[in-house]
């Protein structure tokens, strides 16, 4: 039959559109259109993501503070304890010769 593998059947009605990689411009308009559009788009989405973010941050800091308080020792539990390492006694006063 003389046909190569991949060309054994001809299917009608399917169109293939391809663009050469040499004709693509991946960064076309990034500096002129992309960066100036960044600020308005960010400000437009701010009302959607900022309240949950702020609420989550408040919860995180509140729970972190509660955790620190719960891990703290109660000073009243140690009122009757004696210091095992008392400070050394003060040195004797210097002797002066008269």
Automatic annotation (TrEMBL):
GO terms for biological process: mitochondrial electron transport, ubiquinol to cytochrome c. This is Cytochrome b-c1 complex subunit 8. Keywords: Electron transport, Membrane, Mitochondrion, Mitochondrion inner membrane, Respiratory chain, Transmembrane, Transmembrane helix, Transport. SUPFAM superfamilies: Ubiquinone-binding protein QP-C of cytochrome bc1 complex (Ubiquinol-cytochrome c reductase). It holds the Pfam family UcrQ. Component of the ubiquinol-cytochrome c oxidoreductase (cytochrome b-c1 complex, complex III, CIII), a multisubunit enzyme composed of 11 subunits. The complex is composed of 3 respiratory subunits cytochrome b, cytochrome c1 and Rieske protein UQCRFS1, 2 core protein subunits UQCRC1/QCR1 and UQCRC2/QCR2, and 6 low-molecular weight protein subunits UQCRH/QCR6, UQCRB/QCR7, UQCRQ/QCR8, UQCR10/QCR9, UQCR11/QCR10 and subunit 9, the cleavage product of Rieske protein UQCRFS1. Component of the ubiquinol-cytochrome c oxidoreductase, a multisubunit transmembrane complex that is part of the mitochondrial electron transport chain which drives oxidative phosphorylation. The complex plays an important role in the uptake of multiple carbon sources present in different host niches. The lineage of its organism: Eukaryota, Metazoa, Ecdysozoa, Arthropoda, Hexapoda.
